[in-house]
Amino acid sequence: MALYGADNGRGELRIHDSIDELSTDLADYIAELSDASVKDRGVFTIALSGGSLIGLMGRLCEAPYKKTVDWGKWHIFWADERVVAKSHAESNYKLAKDGLLSKVPIIPNHIHSINDSASAEQAAEDYEFIVRQLVRTRVINVSQINDCPKFDLIILGMGPDGHVASLFPNHSALNKNDEWVTFITDSPKPPPERITFTMPVLNSASNVAVVVTGIGKSEAVHLAIDNVGPNCPLLPARMVRPSNGKLVWFLDKSAASELDNFSQFSQS
Prior knowledge:
It is globular and about 45 Å long. The protein is built from 9 helices and 12 strands. 29% of the residues lie in helices and 19% in strands. It is an alpha/beta fold and 268 residues long.
């Protein structure tokens, strides 16, 4: 693995030779943040997304992490969720449960999933209520900048269109600044009904990791990270800039291949 430090204010880049290498580095990163947060606050709050992300986190189910991570101190949230039954193949909860949560000793009532029997609007309201209650009881930290919840870590994937969580390019949900959780009923990617953290919540986290693999996302990676001029489309991924936290991009070489300085990196 090589570290490629971005100098344009868009985060630290970690570019990996293989998916296996990326998965190991990601597990190390999450375990280190968990350990530091538990020592500091006695709890670790982590928000997940769906897609290939859970598979890339799978190394956490193996040695040494399965025994060394203090799983009992974890509180699990979702940065976005599809409004489908928890048993549905499209459910981010089911994906996380099958691929990670059922394989490690996390306390069941520390897993904060959405109300899957409600409408998208009601599910978003209910989920924001849960988050507010846990901010009130100090399970979740609070940002001193905007009073948003300050999760210890939010892990995001990114689509080929540059969307993160369920915040899609040119969608009105991108402009939701007064809510912590919002909903959409017209997702350009099925299923159409989803709930999602808003951009202010993403940017209030102590740590944000964006995990991207594959050549099909390389153009979006370039547009999200590089200084591409005033005519650059405003991708949601480019808007992820923690106000008082750290942003790290976990990329494989295929996803990083269109970055402006990639040739310099590949020679290092």
